[in-house]
Design a protein that fits this description.
Layout lengths: L10 H36 L3 H4 L5 H20 E5 L6 E6 L8 E7 L16 H9 L3 H12 L6 E2 L11 E2 L5 E4 L5 E9 L5 E2 L2 H18 L5 E3 L13 H18 L5 E6 L1 H5 L5 H13 L16
Parallel strand pairs: 2-10, 3-7, 3-9, 9-10
Antiparallel strand pairs: 1-2, 4-5, 6-7, 7-8
Helix pairs in contact: 1-3, 6-7, 7-9
Length: 311
């Protein structure tokens, strides 16, 4: 048996091509099904007409129409773009590799800001681990930048070696955000806590509660850069919510934050190809929710600056 030829194509690309082929064939067969239905109806009522007898001769047009519809569905399924009502801010939902972009990236971190791969504290498969390997020559280079930013912040607690045998001992408030990077800027946001086994954990409600703080810190510390954001909490945070629920909550919290004060011209939420292929995200549902949320006019409560009473 001859070995299969390896074209050097990424597995994700091959899967995309399979999905595209299946959807195009499906649309083509649907179009031919419509043609068959039209022929049956026409023959039943108008079998004597010459034009009815010629309908099967135009099957190519039905097939072409089916392929065009299939291509349109593919294009709309892999990327969604919406603009928030009343704001010059765009939201994009995109299936792809977040590291093929060069915009400022939001990275989930732990409250002690440990970034070590060599000590097996952080997984090389995590967004944080990939960011370190791609943009820094060593762990020390990234640690130096992190320590510089953290030096201006209050330490919440200093852990003991019994509580945390390895890694950093200074713990900061959950939701703390720092802005770093030279080759590619990043917002490191503390969304999880590490235990003595270097296992991350956070309660779902606590995670949702810190989202407004994260967006506010990005507004205060950023320079209105376009932002790339993965589905925070979907990896090693061990949240109960699934990826689609997390993405919806991220979208909603960002839109609310934008109405309270603009923090970027555009944000792109990235869905990993693996999550899409496994069916973790329904793009049609996300599109409907995003369209509704962007059209809804959220008006934040205004208060008197002196009395504090609502206006």
């Amino acid at each position: 048996m001859k070995p299969m030829i390896n074209l050097g194509l990424p597995k994700n690309l091959i899967t995309y091509l399979k999905i595209a082929l299946i959807k195009l064939l499906s649309s083509a067969f649907q179009a031919l099904g419509v043609l068959w239905f039209v022929i049956q109806i026409a023959n039943y009522f108008f079998s004597d007409l010459e034009c009815v007898k010629k309908i099967p001769d135009y099957w190519e047009f039905f097939l072409l129409f089916g392929i065009i519809v299939g291509l349109y569905k593919l294009c709309t399924q892999f990327k969604i773009n919406k603009r928030i009502g009343g704001k010059d801010v765009d939201i994009e939902i995109k299936i792809g590799d977040i590291f093929r972009s060069n915009q400022a990236i939001v990275i989930g971190c732990n409250t002690t800001f440990d970034i070590s791969l060599s000590k097996n504290i952080i997984s090389k498969k995590s967004i944080q681990g990939q960011y370190l390997k791609k943009y820094f020559r060593s762990e020390n280079e990234l640690e130096t930048q992190i320590e510089t930013e953290l030096s201006n912040l209050n330490v919440l607690k200093e852990k003991t070696k019994e509580e945390k045998p390895s890694g950093n001992l200074k713990e900061y408030e959950i939701g703390t955000t720092i802005f770093i990077g030279e080759k590619r800027k990043a917002y490191l946001v503390a969304i999880t806590k590490l235990n003595e086994h270097n296992t991350t954990k956070i309660n779902d409600n606590d995670f949702f509660d810190i989202l407004p703080k994260i967006w506010n810190d990005i507004r205060l510390k950023g320079n209105m850069e376009n932002i790339d954001c993965p589905i925070l909490g979907s990896g090693f945070s061990r949240l109960r919510s699934n990826r689609q629920e997390l993405l919806i909550e991220l979208i909603r919290s960002f839109i609310v934050a934008t109405h309270e004060g603009k923090l970027t011209e555009k944000i792109t939420f990235y869905i990993s190809p693996k999550d899409f292929i496994k069916g973790h995200i329904d793009m049609n549902t996300i599109n409907q929710i995003l369209e509704y949320e962007c059209k809804s006019r959220y008006i934040p409560e205004r208060r008197n600056s002196i009395t504090g009473t609502p206006i």
